[in-house]
């Protein structure tokens, strides 16, 4: 079985070289770029000529475009700040020699400021093209599959939140989409106590439930940042609701 690797990018000149280098096992690499203004495109051209532009911040749309452009029967999705280890690459190649499922879920290890986060995410990233119904959701996108889903053993590495400036820039961008989605779903009017509730919930989830406290200062910064991020989303929603009225 041949594999198409699909990478989403937006101003990823620092992360992209390592990401694309780790995909040497794929039969083709497809880059879906979201209007990068740095050296992302010139870096991508060193690894592939299959680079496509996508306007607007819609991650499902970007992933579905990648599926449309892929020529092989299996798809592997990767973000530019993620890396495939040698062991995971070998496992994927071995799995595709005799695939038993329509798609495969894998563990993603997140690293904040270089430290591994205590909890692990599970994500579907390897899938048979003709069994993928599509990706849904503009921001927190998920694939809808036909057939059963297996589990890979080796993890994917995700190096996110490496500096405060990039974190704030990303939050400002994503919170706009989050606020619009809540507005379109007719979210109840934002009143003062709701800010405290969502911020405390976000902090508790990150610092206590996900055991961020185990990382000391890094865990505290990340957990406070999650509270800040949800505050910005709800502040923008409040602003949009008042403009609407």
How would you portray this structure in words?
The chain is α/β, with parallel strands linked by helices and 245 residues long. The chain has 2 domains: 3-160, Alpha-Beta Complex (Spore Coat Polysaccharide Biosynthesis Protein SpsA, Chain A); 164-244, no CATH class. Helices cover 40% and strands 25% of the residues. It contains 7 helices and 12 strands. A hairpin with a 5-residue loop joins β9 (132-136) and β10. The radius of gyration is 19 Å and the shape is globular. The N and C termini lie far apart (55 Å).
Which CATH top level class of the largest domain fits? Alpha Beta
CATH H-level superfamily title of the largest domain: Spore Coat Polysaccharide Biosynthesis Protein SpsA, Chain A
Q: Which architecture name of the largest domain does CATH use?
A: Alpha-Beta Complex
Beta-strand content bin: 25-35%
Helical stretch count?
7
Protein name: Glycosyltransferase 2-like domain-containing protein
Domain Glycosyltransferase 2-like: 4-131
InterPro entries: Glyco_trans_2-like, Nucleotide-diphossugar_trans
Describe what is shown at a glance.
The chain contains seven helices and twelve strands. The protein is of the alpha/beta class.
Attribute tags:
245 residues; alpha/beta; 2 domains; two-stranded antiparallel sheet; 25% strand
